[in-house]
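Backbone-to-sequence.
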């Protein structure tokens, strides 16, 4: 399929150190390099105008390092062949409305577990209320109030809203088998394609020894690396508790947390309580072009989150030859079905034991690293692009049939897995 015009709608800011922004940037770059025409709509960096030519102006959220897009899409030219929605925020909702107004097929990537995140982010409830209003769902005051009540009422209302997204979509991309399985909570589904994101990790000339010196880490010290923000849903408490046990066995070990912009004081306080403050190195978000140096500097990646939908840091680490230990068995399957990752129960003792084994057993370290690199090599950017274009072809072939496709529960359970 040549010369496809795809409009991507994403509420994550360009350059943010989150998985959605990284995945969208990688996807857009790959599509453009293959000769496809891509329009990318996402919030500009707060009040500084527009990043992309079709960027969306945004306003800042008080007390948060984010902005909310204020989309207007009435003048889009040329009209795309496919609308690809990545988020259910104002920009993503604008994409759904634009697609419906112009009779365009919609592909939606389910990047975020909204049900899991709603307990941690108040803006999800506000966003859900905004989405219901913009999509003209006819909710009552009682429906909106349910969003403010934690527990089953909020969950029911978010599922109800998610169902509206599904009913407006021709195909859904789940970035992992875990995410695909979670979508079964919806009553009706369009076909679900399990397509993990393939990330190209740029080489960085910064050497292992040089970076360790900059971080005040000895060349021979065992280094545990964690990548990403340290907000509650990522479970930094589990990471720090596990590392405290590693430190008892390996007193020279160091923990490097890269990408920590928010809650730095909280992380340092938890580190002091866990007795690892002196062994902790907190690093703010770094350009993606420098991440290869951090993976090269470390000895193992610790992935403590159980709310992620795919875990791009694990994919990057494996591509760099760094062993991975994760606390979410549901994400143990690697892209392409090439074996499982080293996973543990989500408790400090289990995770610490696995990290210590990898750090002290050279053979295990080598086996885990080689298996991860082989999996990364097997699931290339070209594989990802091929699967993505297959989804677009399917969506274009079913344009206008969304209602019929989602009317039958049996038909909606179709699933396709990228292999």
């Amino acid at each position: 399929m040549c010369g496809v015009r795809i409009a991507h709608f994403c509420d994550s800011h360009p350059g943010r150190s989150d998985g959605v922004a990284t995945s969208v940037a990688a996807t857009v770059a790959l599509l453009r390099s293959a000769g496809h025409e891509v329009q990318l709509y996402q919030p500009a960096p707060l009040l500084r105008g527009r990043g992309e030519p079709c960027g969306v102006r945004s306003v800042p959220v008080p007390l948060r390092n984010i902005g909310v897009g204020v989309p207007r899409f009435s003048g889009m030219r040329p009209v795309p062949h496919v609308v690809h929605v990545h988020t259910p925020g104002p920009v993503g909702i604008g994409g759904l409305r634009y697609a419906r107004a112009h009779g365009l097929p919609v592909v939606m990537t389910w990047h975020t577990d909204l049900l899991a995140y709603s307990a941690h982010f108040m803006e999800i409830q506000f966003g859900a209320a905004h989405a219901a209003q913009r999509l003209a769902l006819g909710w009552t005051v009682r429906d909106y109030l349910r969003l403010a009540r934690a527990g089953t009422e909020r969950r029911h209302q978010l599922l109800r809203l998610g169902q509206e997204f599904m009913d407006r979509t021709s195909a859904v991309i789940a970035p992992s088998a875990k995410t695909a399985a979670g979508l079964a909570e919806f009553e009706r589904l369009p076909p679900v394609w399990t397509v993990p994101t393939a990330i190209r990790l740029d080489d960085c000339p910064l050497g292992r020894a040089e970076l360790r010196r900059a971080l005040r880490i000895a060349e021979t010290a065992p280094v545990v690396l964690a990548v990403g923000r340290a907000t509650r849903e990522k479970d930094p408490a589990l990471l720090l508790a596990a590392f405290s046990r590693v430190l008892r066995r390996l007193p020279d070990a160091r923990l490097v947390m890269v990408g920590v912009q928010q809650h730095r004081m909280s992380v340092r306080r938890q580190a002091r309580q866990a007795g690892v403050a002196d062994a902790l190195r907190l690093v703010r978000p770094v350009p993606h072009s420098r991440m290869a140096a951090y993976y090269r500097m470390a000895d193992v990646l610790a992935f403590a989150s159980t709310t992620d939908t795919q875990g791009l840091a694990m994919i990057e680490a494996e591509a760099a030859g760094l062993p991975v230990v994760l606390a979410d068995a549901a994400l143990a399957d690697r892209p392409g079905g090439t074996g499982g990752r080293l996973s543990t129960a989500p408790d400090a003792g289990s995770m610490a034991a696995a990290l210590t084994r990898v750090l002290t057993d050279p053979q295990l370290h080598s086996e885990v690293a080689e298996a991860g690199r082989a999996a990364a090599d097997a699931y290339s950017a070209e594989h990802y692009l091929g699967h993505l274009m297959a989804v677009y072809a399917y969506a274009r072939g079913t344009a206008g049939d969304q209602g019929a496709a989602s009317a039958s529960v049996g038909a909606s359970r179709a699933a396709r897995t990228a292999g």
